[in-house]
Amino acid sequence: MENLVVLAMEPTALPTFENLPIHLREPFLRAVHRNPLQWLLPPHSDDEFELSEQCLARLQAFALGQGLAVVTGKVYRQDTPRWQFRCIHHSSKTRNHRKLEQEVEREYRRKVPLW
Fold this sequence. Notes:
The chain is an alpha+beta fold. It is built from four helices and two strands; from the N terminus they run H-H-H-H-E-E. The chain has one domain.
């Protein structure tokens, strides 16, 4: 656990930072420093928040350090309100609300105009 604390205090040691292109490293660090650096550590099951937005911010901060993103899943408002948050890349099913094609065609021979 001690290694995780040191890692959490130094965002440049994160694999996400190291794998970023040079021009994206500074914006990444600015985004990381908008939240407490402890939020780069994995969340705890006993974490409590007053608002769902605070919980989402905490999860997003952790996900940013991991190179992921979190989205709001199901929201239950009856009885005891609760929210499900999901990884945008690793949920059980890919969402396609915009009805995009399942397969993406790529043009491998890109023609770059010479100026």
